[in-house]
Design goal:
- There is one protein chain.
- The protein has two domains: about 160 residues, no CATH class; about 140 residues, no CATH class.
- It is α+β, with helices and mostly antiparallel strands.
- The protein has nine helices and eleven strands.
- The chain starts with a helix and ends with a strand.
Length: about 375
């Protein structure tokens, strides 16, 4: 009896026990709730996405085609996937829409698959099916319960952690304490950042009569606000990306996925080699295409960044004019790409020409860095 009372009266053991229980409960509940909606993937190609996001990409392209009828662009944005992946994704969505009674949506997918040469409907036609009455509501209920359990687990974990820290600090009250630090918030254009943490000196404690000693903390650098950029509305900026090319990177092609803060896919932007000069390896790139794809209208807007030589060569200009607007690359130059709902302000932040015997001066690039700032309109 005395031994149990002594254990229960020990605040340190109570704090540790509460922390362990909170961790176990939190672990079990977190394991029961899917965390996948909390994960955001950036700067990746569609081929690197998880299976469900690949399927969503393919279905979005199929739906967009039914509105804009641009088969060339649709094929271009399915180039990352094998015919088998495209077929399976369209078949899955076709069956799902039929099951939910969306015969129109299923028919769109079947027609799109037929244009690509894929048998999506399996020889059948899109027929409306009875819509399950209980599945959606039960799924929504389970999702709501899962979120509630996740919040409760977090609260339990925080309470247990706070109790443990409080008990440990209480037992160490007789020792010289360490000053806490407080980060001073600063506000700029609605964005809160944190400047250097300042030590806080407390009053002498009653137990020791000593002042708490401040601890030197490393500075926390406040992020600089984005500079004004061209015509892009920074209030809806989707981030900043840099496409960097160096001589020797053959078949250069880089792209960046554009998403909302909630992970909703909006489109893509990127840069790739468009024209070379001379023969042999490595490639002597004389022009790059900078492009923007908007999923809402399934079109790709392109501008061609050309070397000084290529820009002044009539034959090269005629050859590249069909791809997009021609622009001579110059350090510090801005270009703007716009679609129905997106815009990209691109700036050439670094440009170095290569020198190769037998080729004209300023004909191909040694280095090219283009900084891109995409935004929603």
């Amino acid at each position: 009896m005395n031994k149990d009372s002594s254990t229960l009266s020990n605040p340190l053991l109570l704090g540790i026990g509460g922390l362990v229980v909170g961790l176990l409960i939190g672990w079990l509940l977190l394991g029961a709730v899917s965390l996948s909606p909390l994960v955001t993937i950036k700067d990746t190609l569609p081929v690197d996405l998880a299976k469900e996001y690949k399927q969503q990409w393919i279905v979005d392209i199929a739906d967009a085609y039914s509105t804009h009828q641009d088969l060339t662009s649709a094929r271009n944005h399915l180039r990352w996937f094998t015919p088998n992946e495209v077929t399976e994704s369209l078949k899955f969505a076709f069956t799902e829409r039929n099951t939910k009674g969306d015969s129109e949506g299923a028919a769109r997918l079947a027609a799109f698959g037929q244009l690509l040469g894929y048998d999506v409907a399996g020889g059948g036609t899109a027929q409306p099916q009875p819509t399950p009455q209980s599945g959606a509501s039960s799924g929504g209920m389970l999702g709501g319960i899962g979120q509630l359990l996740l919040i409760l687990a977090g609260l339990i974990l925080l309470v247990a952690l706070g109790l443990g820290i409080y008990m440990v600090m209480r037992n160490r009250a007789a020792r010289p304490a360490v000053a806490t630090t407080r980060a001073m918030p600063t506000s700029d254009a609605g964005t809160t950042s944190y400047a250097r943490a300042e030590p806080v000196m407390t009053a002498p404690t009653q137990e020791t009569g000593m002042y708490e000693q401040p601890v030197t903390a490393p500075p926390v650098v406040a992020p600089s606000p984005p500079a004004a950029r061209g015509a892009v509305p920074l209030t809806k900026s989707l981030g900043t990306f840099a496409a960097t090319y160096k001589f020797g990177e053959d078949n250069y092609d880089t792209s960046f996925t554009l998403e909302t803060a909630r992970g909703e896919f909006l489109g893509e932007t990127g840069m790739g080699s468009s024209e070379t000069v001379g023969e042999g390896k490595p490639d002597k790139v004389t022009a790059f295409d900078v492009w923007l794809f908007d999923k809402t209208d399934v079109r790709t807007v392109t501008q061609i960044l050309m070397s000084e030589y290529a820009f002044n060569d009539q034959a090269t200009r005629q050859r590249l004019a069909t791809k997009g607007e021609l622009v001579m690359a110059e350090k510090g130059r801005h270009i703007t790409l716009e679609t129905a709902t997106l815009a990209v302000d691109a700036e050439i932040v670094d440009l170095v020409y290569a020198s190769t015997p037998g080729l004209p001066p300023n004909s191909h690039f040694q280095k090219l860095i283009v900084e891109m700032v995409p935004a929603q309109k």
